């Protein structure tokens, strides 16, 4: 049986494996980081939708030993944590943002690569993606430091424009971008929100 395109090992999947990353998504974050200067040494970062762990690994390397990356996902990681990383296996919809802040403190940056289990119905998938992005925003609004930044993935489709406008009211700068390493067929867009109001 012929594999669907999204299951075929491509250039980025092979490159990720060769470089020791669990998934090709690392190159999306790398490209976004190069474009928007998202990560820096010493930062404290929250990674929502962290499994299988590529973004955590990349972020951990970028923030260094004086930084911290905290990952949250309902699925387990497929890699061993380093000293500057923590991971909690939990559904983001079960997170109480203030409790998270009380436990871990404030963050310089919140990353969200959350994606729904897609059903192949673009409108429904987009709405479910927006729901995840809205939950990530609810968490970010509480745990981000003043002038903190937020990077969130959302699918184009119903609800996208409304969510984008919502972000513009909460951050000083909001920019959308589709990395070259995203699959051509993907509707995913990354939105970088700089400087929480």
Give descriptors for this structure.
Rossmann fold, alpha/beta, 197 residues, 7-stranded mixed sheet, single chain, 6 helices, globular, disordered N terminus, 25% strand
Tally of extended strands? 7
Apparent shape: globular
Largest sheet: 7 strands, mixed
Distance from N terminus to C terminus (CA atoms, Å) equals 52 Å
Strand arrangement within the widest β-sheet reads 3-2-1-4-5-7-6
Instruction: Kindly name the structural category.
Output: alpha/beta
The structural domain count equals 1
Task: Specify the CATH homologous superfamily.
Answer: Vaccinia Virus protein VP39
The CATH class label is Alpha Beta
Helix content: 25-40%
Task: Give the amount of beta strand, in percent.
Answer: 25-35%
Helix and strand succession? HHEHEEHEHEHEE
Query: Count of DSSP helices?
Result: 6
What's the CATH architecture name? Answer: 3-Layer(aba) Sandwich
Q: What is the CATH topology classification name?
A: Rossmann fold
- Rounded mean pLDDT is 90
